[in-house]
Amino acid sequence: MSKSFNKFKRRVRAQAIAVSALLGVGVSVVSLAAVILAGKLGGNAVKPIFYVLAAVFAAALSLVLYLIFMPSDKRLARRLDSLYGLDEKVSTMVELRDDEGGFARLQREDADQRLGEKPIKSLKARQLVAGLLVFCISVGCIVGALIVPAKADGGESVIDEFDKQWIITAIGELITTVEGAYINDSLRGKVLTELNSLLDFVKSSDYLSEMKTKAISTVLGINAALVEANSAESLSVVFLESSDDAVKELAKALGELAGSGSKNALVALGESVAASGADDRDFTADEIDSYLAASGVHSGDTLYLLFKGLTAAIREGSDIEDEFSKAATALNAEVIVQNVNRSTMRIVINKLCNLFGITEDDLTAVDPDTDIDLRDPETPPPPVPPGGEEPDKNIGSGGLGTGDVIYGSNDLVFDPDTNTHRPLGEILGDYFAKANEKITDGKASEELSDAAEEYFGSLFDGAPKND
Amino acid sequence: MENMENAKSFSARIASIKAELAKDVVGNEEVIENIIIAIISGGNVLLEGVPGVGKTRLVRSLSRTLGLPFSRIQFTPDLMPSDVTGTNIIQKDKDGNMRTVFRRGPIFANLVLADEINRATPKTQSAMLEVMQEHKVTIGRATHAIAEPFFVMATENPIEQDGTYPLPEAQMDRFMFKLIMKFPGTEELKNIVTMTQATMLETAETVMDGETILGMRQLASGVPVIDDVLEYAVNLVSATHPELDGASATASKYIKYGASPRAAQALITAAKVRALMHGNYNVSYADIDALAAPVLRHRVKVNYAAINDKLTVDDVIEMLVKETKKP
Q1: Co-location of B207 and B227 in the same domain
Q2: Average pLDDT by consecutive 10-residue portion of chain A (467 residues)?
Q3: What pLDDT sits at residue A150?
Q4: For position A112, what pLDDT does the model report?
Q5: Number of residue pairs across A and B with CB atoms under 8 Å?
Q6: Closest-CA residue of chain B to A101
Q7: H or E, element range at A110
Q8: Closest Cβ opposite residue A92 in set B4, B8, B226
Q9: Smallest Cα–Cα separation from B177: which of B205, B150, B196, B155?
Q10: How far apart are CA B275 and CA A130, in angstroms?
Q11: Is the minimum CB–CB distance between B172 and chain A shorter than 8 Å?
Q12: Would residue B134 count as lying in a domain?
């Protein structure tokens, strides 16, 4: 065969190989991408045999396509004649390649010369664009298939390793917080048990939904431990049901959940009980015992023991006021601890809920009776005052602020005792009431009384004064 | 080897013939080329043209260029066959004995112009056509061969058709080509007038002889034709037949009856000569397409639908060429 024809044939062969490879590999890769994607969506790993099959398929398909795309000499000759306007010279040359006659040789020479003059670059690869397109699509498909995260049965995503580590670190920080917090030891123990259990689960799990379920259980467990540890509220609720006025007063004292409020109420109650008759005292003691038993509060609980001590003193009928005074002090301390329990657990619970995307609906779905408050415990939003004015956010907690504050006004400040925003005038009124009590009781010295009167007098222009 | 050298010089020789003819004949290059093809192929030509377009001059000039004897036969209704072929006459020899001598007719030439053949009677036409086919004349028991190469160019006057005997299709099939000499354009007419004002004589010179033409004919027969081109030529001829299965839409609509197998033979034979003439050593589709009209126009009969649509036979042939697929 002529040199020129062989040159064109080599070019066409190279083009056919390239196009066949592009199409063959492209189709095979698209098929593999589909298998990988199906596996990931179905939660099944793609076995190595599929990769081998894909490679074999690519090779076989490329070979078949090569046989299709690589034209025969006759077809190539036709194509060259048509492309270069050679009047069937190349076709005749190919057909007469084995003819040794004079005309055949002359014709071959002429055809070879004419073909040799033609630019080989004009011979473009057919289906090359299609091949490139299929190959690019296949690259996109395989990249997409590899990027898509695998799903578990039921259609869930495997958690990203980076996110998992972040969750583990966050739980670790919570554990450290709880370990160092000024909270009840038994509460600490229970909360740490819950948190460590959650941590272990997160380390062993790959699916966010499972982690969330466990986290919901942890949150409810922590809340239950908190409820158990913070007995003041439980006791307050049951004591309110009593028909005895003294027990009801106890409930109110507990319900204050504020140190000075609870303490004063208890002292006043001690005086009242001490002044009552024996029958009344016995009734009060029985009521307290009865509701203590009904409250479900653990017998080793601090407040439980405190009230048990009170009932003993009431029955004995001696040193009632002293006992109530001591109880008041102990109660005050315990309430402070329980406040810290609450605020610390609120932080822990809110952190866990933020970490796992737990909502109040998620919690009530598991435990309809739960009353977990997911507001941010550190900076609760100030309520809008009755006048509708926005509170001044520059006002710090418990304070007189920047000096612009109009004393005795309705400006809101954070009251750490009640953990709410209350009008400044109201808080100052409480302080004045306590100071005034000491002054009127004669328990403060004359000089201190004068100073207190002058001090509070200057604070309260127009503030309500307790009588 | 010598043949291959002749093959290489084939187109140059044809170019020299054309150059000489151009001295005496203005225009009609396509007609001249096809006539040369027919001569070299061994075919005959039916030439149609109005009087005065140079038919006789062309053949005469051709005879000078090719160095071949020429005769012109003017056909009239009273022309007898023996007037064409010749006849035996009784003659006294030098010894005084009476003997029969064959007097050759005008047909005994290498180039014969049979002018207005449609004016002769069918009997005379047949005698003429028989000689065209056989290349010999048989009178009594004696057969007289016509010298080769033998070429007949017959003319038909398309204007005066009264009292004529149009050639039947079967007879027309014997002609390789039907060529049409058109009235010259303005420039060509100016050139004709200018040339003939100077001299009416033909000035073409002899550049070839009969033996060379026979050699060229032999050479051209060896030009290869690939199967694809052969198939195309055959398909083209078959496409003229509306009665065949898979007939083309054009044939079904416009053709009454199609070309005979002689058309396919003529196509290939003439295409070989044309290929060599153009410096090619193989027959191509272009050769077939160029010769389709001359080969088919007198062999295909169009129907009333074509006449109604104002389509000539050449128009229909052009449509067939476009419809016929090349392998």
Answers
A1: no
A2: 88 91 92 86 75 92 92 92 92 91 90 90 80 91 81 61 86 92 88 95 88 93 89 79 81 62 71 82 84 81 84 82 79 77 88 89 80 56 43 44 44 68 65 66 66 65 44
A3: 65
A4: 92
A5: 54
A6: B222
A7: helix A102-116
A8: B226
A9: B155
A10: 40
A11: no
A12: yes
Q: Which residues, 6+ apart, have CB-to-CB distance to B238 below 8 Å?
A: B244, B258
CATH number at residue B231: 1.10.8.80
Q: Of B187, B215, B243, which closes a domain?
A: B215
Contact A87 B222 (CB under 8 A): no
Q: Does A2 touch chain B (CB under 8 A)?
A: no
Find, in chain B, the residue whose alpha carbon is nearest to that of A91.
B226
pLDDT at B235 (0 to 100): 94
B170 plus B196 within the same structural domain: yes
What CATH number did the domain enclosing B150 receive? 3.40.50.300
Instruction: Name the average pLDDT for chain B.
Output: 88
Among A345, A378, A411, the domain-final residue is A378
User: Is the residue at B104 inside a domain?
Assistant: no
B35 versus A391: the higher-pLDDT residue is B35
Q: Does residue A62 share a domain with residue A111?
A: yes
Output the pLDDT for position A259. Answer: 47
Total structural domains within chain A? 3
Residues 71-100 of A with CB under 8 A from B: 78, 87-89, 91-92, 95-96, 99
Q: Are residues A207 and A168 in the same domain?
A: yes
Residue A27's closest CA among A124, A142, A125, A127? A142
Same domain flag for B25 and B144: yes
User: Which of B1, B273, B278, B281 should we substitute to test contact with A (largest number of A Cβ atoms within 10 Å)?
Assistant: B281
Q: Do A103 and B7 touch (CB under 8 A)?
A: yes
Listed in sequence order, the residues at least 6 apart from B281 whose beta carbon sits closer than 8 Å to its beta carbon are: A89, A92, A103, A106, A107, A110, B7, B223, B224, B275
User: What are the backbone angles phi and psi of residue A48, rounded to the nearest 5°?
Assistant: -55, -30
Question: Does residue B258 share a domain with residue B175?
Answer: no
Same domain membership, residue B242 and residue B119: no
- At B50-106, the pLDDT tens digits run 788 888 888 888 988 998 988 999 998 899 988 988 888 888 878 888 888 888 889
Per-residue confidence (pLDDT) for residue A388, from 0 to 100: 44
| CA closest to B289 among chain A residues | A87
A2 CA: distance to closest CA in chain B (Å): 16
How high is the ipTM of this complex?
0.84
Residue A43 and residue A172 in one domain: no
Of the residues B191, B215, B239, the one at which a domain ends: B215
Query: How much is the pLDDT for A86?
Result: 92
- Among chain B residues, the shortest Cα distance to A104 is held by B224
Distance, in Å, from the CA atom of A65 to the CA atom of A79, rounded to the nearest integer, reads: 19
Chain A residues with beta carbon closer than 8 angstroms to that of B283: 88
Number of domains observed in the structure of chain B: 2
Residue type (1 letter), B324: T
Contact A91 B8 (CB under 8 A): no
Q: In which domain, by residue range, is A122 found?
A: 3-152
* Cβ neighbours, 10 Å, residue B209: 13
DSSP H stretches of helix in B25-114:
29-41, 55-66, 81-85
Are B282 and A107 in contact (CB < 8 Å)?
A: yes
In terms of domains, do B231 and B117 share one?
A: no
Give mean pLDDT, residues B107-122.
89
Q: Is the CB of residue A281 less than 8 Å from the CB of residue A315?
A: yes
Asked if B8 lies within 8 A of A106 by C-beta distance, the reply is yes
Dihedrals phi, psi of A53, to nearest 5 degrees: -60, -40
Of B3, B7, B285, the CB nearest to A88: B285
Asked if the structure places residue B45 within a domain, the reply is yes
Q: Are residues B114 and B229 in the same domain?
A: no
Q: Provide the domain limits for residue B56.
A: 2-76+109-215
B254 and B209 in a common domain: no
The shortest CB-CB distance from A89 to any of B3, B8, B282 is to B282
**Residues contacting A308, CB < 8 A, separation 6+:** A289, A292
